[in-house]
Design brief:
The protein is of the alpha+beta class. Helix content is 50%, strand content 13%. The strands form 3 sheets. A two-stranded antiparallel sheet has the order 1-2. A two-stranded antiparallel ribbon has the order 3-4.
């Protein structure tokens, strides 16, 4: 599988997309960030989506990916815990947000005008910058009330989370789970018809 379509970048929000780098495939849990090489591919994929910009880092991702990987995985655990609580209609403890604030303190932000828009540029090491950018995204989702629309996929075997303001969406994505369920239902109906 190419790295371009390895990651289920389905939300447009880097903190939620980070959480969704742990997923179930064919009944087994998979960590899509198992190595520094995977982290490089993830950052490049996010840059292609313009969710991250190379100006936000002081060095090339291949120079700091191995150092960032364990920190990013630790943040992913923290974010998943909070996001799943919200998806289950449980409020977050203040400590959850405090932890994100501490991560941002390691790489405070300045801003640059890039292509007519303000770009948050963390100061400090690139490793801390990536963590701060993810933490900032999570905090922004919280303060803008976006996380009140977070949901789990209707496929009980799926661990992906998504934001849906319409209240009608059931699947993490039609491509990942929705079509699979539709095909399964269709085959089941077809099988039942043949048995008649």
């Amino acid at each position: 599988m190419s790295h371009d379509n390895q990651f289920p970048l389905i939300t447009g929000e880097i903190s939620l997309d980070l959480v969704n780098t742990e997923m179930i495939r064919y009944g087994k849990k998979h960590d899509l960030l198992a190595s520094g090489e995977d982290l490089i591919a993830w950052v490049v994929a996010l840059q292609k989506q313009q969710a991250l910009h190379d100006r936000q880092f002081s060095g090339e991702v291949y120079e700091w990916a191995d150092e960032a990987l364990p920190l990013l995985k630790k943040l992913r655990v923290h974010l998943r815990q909070g996001y799943e609580q919200l998806a289950d209609d449980t409020s977050l403890p203040r400590e959850w947000m405090n932890h994100l604030e501490l991560l941002i303190d390691k790489a405070p932000f300045t801003y640059r005008l890039v292509n007519g828009a303000l770009l948050a540029v963390p100061s400090g090491k690139s490793t801390d910058a990536l963590i701060a950018l993810v933490a900032l995204n999570a905090m922004n989702l919280f303060v803008t009330n976006e996380l009140s629309h977070i949901h789990r996929c209707a496929n009980k075997d799926c661990t992906l989370l998504f934001i849906d303001k319409s209240g009608r969406r059931k699947w993490c994505s039609m491509k990942i789970c929705g079509n699979r369920k539709k095909v399964t239902r269709h085959l089941r109906r077809k099988e039942q018809e043949q048995q008649k």
